[in-house]
Design brief:
8-stranded mixed beta sheet; globular; alpha/beta; EC 3.13.2.1; Adenosylhomocyst_ase-like_sf; 38% helix; 7-stranded parallel beta sheet; Adenosylhomocysteinase-like
Length: 490
């Protein structure tokens, strides 16, 4: 009979209190009480104590961080080393720019998902000369052991899996509001960090050179600021760069949607009826994966062009009300709010699975389910049954937050493409001469998009065909690119 040394000790421990936190903290308690399906090395003995109440130091004596458990750093370092093998472009950037240090003097404050892949990006930025402070953009997606590894390596990181809403904003504030250090660049995912600085520390923008934003939600907020004349620094829209749109949004979600659903529900997809709300790049990826697994897929859309694409791809275009009573799974990926309302939730069939693949938790009206007549029952990490008085229940995943990063993992190689795009955008904005970029939102230059793609081709032993001088002249192109005009749709 084989027994691991700590096995008995671990399984006999039980949390004795939930602690001082909001309802969202108590609801999500078991996401940090046990080993989650995302394989986070969480020590259950520490779960009852908020990281904010702990005094921790890394091996160098620094306490400028707040993570779940600094002792998990060794596990996190192994995960980062594995991720490095699948992120060739970032590793290439480190080698090519080691001597130049294009980010020397940059003080970057970041708010993204804190995963092994993000850690590779952060350490690359550090190798290029930048100082970084970091918080999480999602209360469930942080890998505690990775956050610990970053803190051990000297990065001020303020994040842990299962934060409350209060913790979330506290962590962002700790990154921004620090004596003797002021950011001059922002790397954001969702716009919360940018929003916080505008709200609390608007004078900081006098020294900030630019914002790099990677999500649909965050980009939308930037365009709103620009339209209102309130955007006071240049911003780079990484989300709509070709490499981000096609690879992170489409190919990443095509794989991770199945992973997230399988890990949380163990369900079989063949024959299941699924409605996917939104047929942008994320929706396209989700639909393709589910269709390949034998699911019957319906699509809802507001945009006639995306709607026509869905029809041509063989999907039935419907209004949500038309199918809400019969579908087995509801997936949102619109970037909008109140896509699935309480009325929809009331009409769903028993055991319908409800989840979100968009960045923000506004797509499903989860707040409407926090009422006395409904019972919440935690099934496993990130899986809740919400039970109606008549016994009907729905299966809510990650409390309506981003499914793949909350409940599973995403392909490292795809994130390498996005992270390299972010790094190049930071380098471009930081080093741009005064006047090149005004107080507006910009797309990544086409040449940079092509460069990101080219850095990843050696992984596949791929060989690009080169234009002859005659061919380049005939097409009116430079032999080294860019090869497509800005209006080209890939």
């Amino acid at each position: 009979m084989i027994q691991f040394a700590d096995q008995k000790q671990e399984f006999n421990k039980r949390p004795t209190k939930i602690g001082r936190r909001s309802l969202s903290r108590s609801i999500s308690q078991s996401s940090t009480d046990s080993y989650s399906s995302a394989a986070s090395y969480t020590d259950s003995s520490d779960d009852e104590t908020s990281p904010r109440d702990k005094q921790q130091k890394n091996s160098k004596g620094s306490s400028d961080f707040c993570v779940k458990n600094i002792k998990q750093a060794e596990f996190g370092r192994r995960e980062i080393e594995i991720a490095e093998q699948e992120m060739p472009a970032l590793m290439a950037l480190r080698k090519r720019a080691q001597g130049e240090k294009p980010l020397a003097g940059a003080k970057i404050v970041g708010c993204t998902h804190i995963t092994a892949q993000t850690a590779v990006l952060m350490e690359t930025l550090g190798a290029l000369g930048a100082q970084c402070r970091w918080a999480a953009c999602n209360i469930y997606s942080t890998l505690n052991e990775v956050a610990a590894a970053l803190a051990e390596n000297g990065f001020p990181v303020f994040a842990w899996k299962g934060e409350s809403e209060d913790d979330f904003w506290w962590c962002i504030d700790r990154c921004v509001n620090v004596e003797g250090w002021q950011p001059n660049m922002i790397l954001d995912d969702g716009g919360d960090l940018t929003h916080w600085i505008y709200k609390k520390y608007p004078n900081m923008f006098k020294k900030i050179k630019g914002i790099v934003e990677e999500s649909v939600t965050g980009v939308h907020r930037l365009y709103q600021l620009s339209k209102a004349g309130k955007l006071c620094v240049p911003a780079m829209n990484v989300n709509d760069s070709v490499t981000k749109q096609k690879f992170d949004n489409l190919y990443c979600c095509r794989e991770s949607i199945l992973d997230g659903l399988k890990r949380t529900t163990d369900m079989m997809f063949g024959g299941k009826q699924v409605v996917v709300c939104g047929y942008g790049e994320v929706g396209k990826g989700c639909c393709a994966a589910l269709k390949a697994m034998g699911s019957i897929v319906y699509v809802t859309e507001i945009d006639p062009i995306c709607a026509l694409q869905a029809c041509m791809d063989g999907f039935r275009l419907v209004k949500l009300n038309e199918v809400i009573r019969q579908v087995d799974i509801v997936i949102t990926c619109t970037g909008n709010k109140n896509v699935v309302t309480r009325e929809h939730l009331d009409r769903m069939k028993n055991s319908c699975i409800v989840c979100n693949m968009g960045h923000s938790n506004t797509e499903i009206d989860v707040a409407s389910l926090r009422t006395p007549e409904l019972t919440w029952e935690r099934v496993r990490s990130q899986v809740d049954h919400v039970i109606w008085p008549d016994g009907k229940r729905i299966v809510l995943l990650a409390e309506g937050r981003l499914l793949n990063l909350s409940c599973s993992t995403v392909p490292t190689f795809v994130l390498s493409i996005t992270a390299t795009t972010q790094a190049l955008a930071l380098i471009e904005l930081y080093n741009a001469p005064e006047g090149r970029y005004k107080q507006d939102v910009y797309l990544l230059p086409k040449k940079m998009d092509e460069y990101v793609a080219s850095l990843h081709l050696p992984t596949f032993d791929a060989h690009l065909t080169e234009l002859t001088d005659e061919q380049a002249k005939y097409l009116g192109l430079n032999k080294n690119g860019p090869f497509k005009p800005n209006y080209y749709r890939y």
